[in-house]
Structure of Cupin:
Amino acid sequence: MKDEVLEFEKSKAHIVVEIIEYVDDSVVIKTIIKKSTGNITAVSIDSGEKLEEKTSPFDTFIQIIDGKAEIIIDGDSKLLETGESIIIPAHSRHSINANNRFKMISTIIKSGYDEVS
């Protein structure tokens, strides 16, 4: 797995799907914003690869920006296509499979959990 932190120019338009590339037999992660309150990453996953099952103490917003992905949340499989998104609830077991190669944006917000009901 390759993880790279990018310095995106602020106040400038970006086409994220063109910024992250596919690499054969690999998962590529580029961090767009990383703050103590959360982060946004762009991810490309080649066909046959996956992100292993884990849990997070925070909700995670996933948006597919190219291709199709299988998102498994607490054993329930969801197939998402370009333009679709899903929120993975905090503390749920989840994994992401690339039956086909795809790109996604992952957004985690770490603050405000006690502010909103």
Observations:
- The beta strands are 2-5, 27-35, 38-45, 50-54, 60-73, 76-81, 85-88, 94-97, 102-109.
